[in-house]
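Worked example 2:
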Amino acid sequence: MEVDAGAHQSARHGRVKRMAGLCESCTHMRRITSDRGSVFYLCELSKVDPRFPKYPRLPVLSCTGYEKQSGELTFSTSKRF
């Protein structure tokens, strides 16, 4: 049986998007992908306000710092791990 790796990655990304909640569309979110393919959502507000966790528990359903991204969603995929 053959498995399309690209389709697998796409399906996995879709599940991660649904699991992130508000973070997925927040202007303060930076998406981090590790060398092993794990995905993390970094809250940039955590750098200036200690009320916000650096890596919040997902899904985030309510957040006082939430600001919806305008336009098309884009992701930063810097590998830091």
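Residues 27-81 form one domain. The chain has one helix and two strands.
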